[in-house]
Structures are given as structure tokens and as C-alpha cells.
Amino acid sequence: MNPLQRALIEKAGHDNGFENVLPSVGPHVALGSARHPAQVMVRASDDGFWGAIQSGAATLTQELARTFPMAGNPVQGFVLPTEAALAQWLRRAAALSQALPNQAVVAFEAQLQCELSSLPAETARNTEVQRMVRQRVGQQAYRQAMLDYWGGACAVTGLALPQALRASHAKPWAECASDAERLDVFNGFLLSANLDVLFDSFLVSFSSAGELLVSKTIPPSDQQKLGLAAGMRLRWMSVQHAHYLGFHRQRFLQMTTESSQIQRPGEYEPAEQPATPG
Fold first, then answer.
1. CB atoms < 10 A from the CB of 222, how many?
2. Last-in-domain residue among 36, 69, 99
3. Rounded CA gap, 105 and 116, in Å?
4. Distance between CA atoms of 56 and 76, rounded to whole angstroms?
5. Which one of 24, 63, 111, 155 has the largest count of C-beta atoms within 10 Å of its C-beta?
6. Distances (CA, A) of 127 to 81, 115, 116, 124, 132
């Protein structure tokens, strides 16, 4: 790797969430950040660049593999044919590292202490004030983790308008046993506002395969108005979603009096079906 290639890699890291150049051995550039625990190693290759996760969340490589092609032995890594692909890979790795457990908890605790320390001592000791600050800061941390994990787009439709997106819990905030559960990026989905309201009210849920399930209490005509269409499903699912989604789906089932009240969008529609979102 020549000096120009090394400089390009270091600049890509600095601009995309890995601002620290770490000591390295061999033909690699090691990169890290003060904002998250992930460390990566990158080198130039005949195909452009090659990158791998050196340390970080256990599922980080698996999550990156949803988007980027993998190759390489004995070390598993990613083929990044251009500088743009390298930048995108670094940016996605940094975002995921900030979202995956338990980094959101770390960010929450730091921000919580900062917020409480800025209050007058007597106010900060008030248990109701502590509860309100904890909830507000926690919900902000959870939303940011969701935006990072889902790439700023709805987990179903791909809508990427932040003002219309909500961080939805599968296991409700008030029923979580710990901050780790409340802030777990797998405890819910980033959803458009209409899906969020339905999901939060247990009027929709998702099958174990990610298909959208709709309560029959929502008439077909209202399904169309809500934008619920045949074939809607999660863009992806991780095995870590299963526990929380199982909790939500069970509550969803409990809120129906019999199994016939569950349907998929369009299942009870008239012959003319709404188009599936593209």
C-alpha cells in the first residue's frame, strides 16, 4: 500500500465515523473512534479496498453483510471496489456500532448525568424530575439508535422523512424490566407515523417471517386509507428481534377474540387491489 492509498483510507475514516488512526501491523490501516467501540482495518487491494471489523458488537459483521459483499480467508472481510463504497461501509459500520446493544445505554447514561448535573441540586434530587428527565433522554437515545440501525428509513416502507418516522417499541417502555431492554434497538422498529400508531396500539404486528399482520377490526376501506397494502413486510429481521416481536405478537393476538380476526393487508379487499408500494 503506497502513501497515497494510506492517506485516502485515513481521510475516508475521518470523514465517515472513524476519526482515530490506530497502531497497526502489516499492510492495513486500523481505524477507531471515541464515539463508539468499533475498530476496523482497511487495506488497498486489486479490487479497490478490503475492510474488516477488528472489534465491536458481536453482530456488527453480520449486520453489515446485509448490504456489502463479503470475501476473504482466513480473515472474513468486505470487498469495497471504490472510494465511495469504502466511505459508505465506514459510515454504516459507525452508525450500527452506535445503535447495537449496549451502546445506546452508554450514550443514555452519559447524557442523563449531563442533564441532571445542569439542574439545581435540589431539583436534580427530586424523584419526579429524575423520572421525567430519564424518560425524555431515554426516548431520544432510543430514537437515535433506531435511526442509525435502520439507516434513517421506515423498517417497512423505506420512507426516509425523519419528521414522519417514529421509534416504536415492541415491548412497551413501561413494561421493560431495565434500561437495557428499553434502549435495545431490537425491541421494536423504526416506522412511519401511521404504522407506529397501529403497532403501538397492537392493531398490527408482524409474523415470525416479517409479514405485516392486521387486525380485522380495521375495515378494508380504512386499510387503503392508512396505506396498508398486500405484501407489506419488514425490510429485514434479525434473530435478536424474535423475543420482543414474540411478546408484541402475543399481545396482538390477545386483543383479538378469535384467530379469524387476523388478516394480512388486502386479504379481505374487493377484487381491485391497491398497488404494492415500490
1. 11
2. 99
3. 16
4. 15
5. 155
6. 54, 14, 11, 8, 9
Residues 6+ apart with CB under 8 A from 25: none
The verdict on 95 and 155 lying in the same domain is: no
Whole-structure pTM over 0.70, yes or no? Answer: yes
228: in domain? yes
Question: DSSP 3-state assignment of 108?
Answer: helix
Domain that holds residue 231: 151-263
Distance CA 184, CA 149 (A): 11
- pLDDT of 163-182, one tens digit each? 999 999 999 999 999 999 99
**Model confidence pLDDT, tens digit, residues 22-33:** 998 788 999 999
CB 90 within 8 A of CB 18: yes
Q: Are residues 91 and 157 in the same domain?
A: no
Distance CA 263, CA 212 (A): 9
Give domain status of residue 83, yes or no.
yes
The count of other CB atoms within 10 Å of the CB of residue 215 is 18
Residues 6+ apart with CB under 8 A from 16: 87, 88, 90, 91, 94
Whether 218 contacts 203, CB under 8 Å: yes
